[in-house]
Amino acid sequence: MAEAARGLGWHPFPGPAAVNSVRYQNRAACAYHGFCDRGGCHLDAKNSTAVSTIPRAQETGRLQVVTEAHVRRVEVDGEGRATGVSYLKGGEEYFQPADVVLLASYTYENVRLMLLSKSPAYPDGLSNNGGQVGRHYMTHATGAGVLALFPHRLNRWYGLPAQGVAIDDWAADNFDHSDLDFIGGGNLWVYSDRRPIAAARMPTFGRAPRWGSAWKAFVADNADRWTNCYIQKSTLPYEDNYLDLHPTVTDPLGDPVCRITADFKDNERRIATFVQDRMVEWFRAAGAVEIIRQGLGTMGPSTHAYGGTRMGDDPETNVVDRWGFSHEAPNLGILGASVMGTSGSHNPTLTAQALGWRTAAHLVENWSSIAG
Which one of 28, 256, 292, 314 has the lowest number of neighbouring Cβ atoms within 10 Å? Predict the structure, then answer.
């Protein structure tokens, strides 16, 4: 795939991976088992806050982690300042007082918890007197994929998802839009790993039935000859794409669940068509003999969810300021992709981490004024 991309005049690169190539901080090097995709790592070679940041913070003696606790409300005083959180643990309700409250429960639960936290100061939900909590929800348009069948085996068994080949030539503003009718773009990615069950769930590309002995024979011959891709396309923020509390559906505690009201607009559909064409072109250049185009899909629940507590200088159209602190409740900080104003064409993780560190550093430097 990299050779084919270079032949097209594109600029392929290996995907970055948050794994140890050598032993680091008492965590093992990656052994390429491959099951870390959407899972954990029994070697702790895969980086996450659970195996790197949090244990080191606990060792300082200044962090206490309360596990199996469910926060239901952020409490505030008469002036609208956060005073702590109410949570359940083991069937008992507790109140944790705090000078500063930081919400880090990602997009859906950040929004839900704020909307659940109603009070005389915030009758429509915490920091929602401007009606912006939940607005401008986005997910990556990760649909409109392309499947390809090759005339030879690909040797894609195991490895890491991040070992794939990526193309950024069509991401964001990396290319000329002057003759195009959309804003944004997408990142093209071809995986280098697969697992047996996932491989057996392959399409037959019209060359065999979907069941029976003929299907089994086709899968046996072709399970390592097909591949998919991962195309992340940017999505613009729209006020009528939003999250709110469901009017009738509740969780086991009786609290309303989060509801998604959103769809892709014309801009995102045009991006999808354009980038999908580039992916087909790439597969053809690499020698694919059959191609299947997939649909765009919907803006349902996603691990790449953005918006809902948008960051910006204007309190009329944003929930938090440039440092991640509420315009209305100054000692309330929001962490995660819910503060992001656009989606871009890449995973949100690194940006969310960078914004989290930035908010923390600002809090340390301005503790007295924020904590009051």
Answer: 314
| Gap between the Cα atoms of 20 and 38, Å rounded | 17
**7 and 79 share a domain?**
no
Q: What is the pTM of this model?
A: 0.92
Q: Which tens digits make up the pLDDT trace of 32-53?
A: 887 777 777 888 898 888 888 8
User: In terms of domains, do 94 and 241 share one?
Assistant: no
3-state secondary structure of 224: coil
Helix (H) or strand (E) holding 359: helix 349-365
- CATH at 108: 3.50.50.60
For residue range 318-340, what is the model confidence (pLDDT) as tens digits? 999 999 999 999 999 999 999 99
Tell me the DSSP string of 139-184.
E-B--S-EEEE-SS----BSS-GGGSEEE-TTSTTSS--TT-S-S-
Same domain (yes/no): 176, 236:
yes
Burial of 66 by CB count in 10 Å (0-12 exposed, 13-18 middle, 19+ buried)? exposed
Question: Of 98, 131, 96, which is closest to residue 328 (Cα–Cα)?
Answer: 131
Among candidate residues 236, 261, 293, the one where a domain is terminated = 293
* 372 within 8 A of 331, measured Cβ to Cβ: yes
3-state class of 249 per DSSP?
A: strand
Burial class (CB within 10 angstroms; exposed 0-12, middle 13-18, buried 19+) of 46: buried
| Strand blocks (E) in the chain | 12-14, 70-76, 82-89, 92-97, 101-103, 138-139, 146-149, 165-167, 186-190, 226-227, 229-233, 242-250, 256-261, 290-293, 305-306, 332-334
Q: Cα–Cα distance between 239 and 262 in angstroms, integer? A: 10
